[in-house]
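#help-structures

NK: newbie question. if I give both the sequence and a SMILES, will the prediction place the ligand too? trying with 2-oxoglutaric acid
OV: yes, paste both and it writes out the complex. here, I ran yours:
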Amino acid sequence: MPIIRHDPSDPIDPSGVGTLPFHVFSAGGLTEEIFTPLWAKGQTVVVTGLLDIFQFQWTPDEFIRRYGSQTCHVVDCYDNNQTPIAMNVERFFSQFGHYDGRKTCWKLKDWPPTSLFSTEFPELFKDFADAVPVPNYTRRDGVLNLAAHYPTNPEVVVPDIGPKMYNAFESSELPGGKGSTRLHMDMADAVNVMLHASPRQDGSPGCAVWDIYRAEDAKKIRHFLHEKFGFSKTDPIHSQHHYLDSDLRKELFEREGVKGWRIYQKPGEAVFIPAGCAHQVSLWNASSNEEPQYLTMILLCGCNARCATLQTASRSQSTSSARKISADVNSLQPSSDSKTWHQYGRTTSSK
Ligand SMILES: O=C(O)CCC(=O)C(=O)O
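OV: that's the protein plus ligand as structure tokens.
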């Protein structure tokens, strides 16, 4: 049964909107038999207690020790253009825990680069693959992961399915806040495991605050954003320009009746994000504006018929990123016989 989780150490939702109920399982409690029908419905799922399964120390100090001199590119979550800033890995990770009143919110995305993850960071790659829940779906080589069955000929555009890592500092969801990852939706299902968050002053961990909206609410969200920010040729979700701060979430609920799954993700918890569900993230640490030190990791996994829903949406878009999404999704479709599309143990009802 989906539940509404009440953890007294969670932040108070400043919008007052709350959450739709969602499914929560312990690490050993989520079997494939349980997961498959839930996932077919396009609902988010949370798995707790994964931290002990990881062997690698996913901490800022360990990244500095092993990879400190490597170059990486950081963006400021408040910069609308997301202009990359080059620096070395040590400079980024050494900022964790040394907040100096700066007004920026740095995010290190796609480090290590996805293409190099398995070859240059084999320990990280293996550790993640060995720990991730429902591995037949979520591992890159999982038998139920559609992406593992891709044709290998070079004509096929293979979508970027990760794994990839996100590291970011604390961000705000209060009015004017931009979170750490703005509202967007992906063409593949994803599972995101938080590996590290700096402790708060009372010793309990900080968390990532997820707002995930049901795929069937995307139309209402688009309508709301168009009304609010004006119509533009760019799709308001795919453009990834907007973060729904607490005022906007409240207004979305009042005007369109749309409420999402609001998940406060702690270290060792996995959040599953169905393809086609608009979602956004901010990172919270109750030590107010001090010590923003978050580290999360994401693994993108297989895609199902929900991608066809996304394809319909993105076909009408004219931006290059929308065309790229559309191309990626097209490449997932078998060219003539749609039966092969349904072979991987997932139902195909797309709502
Ligand atoms: O972990 C994050 O901050 C963002 C991950 C995410 O939203 C995505 O990759 O789609």
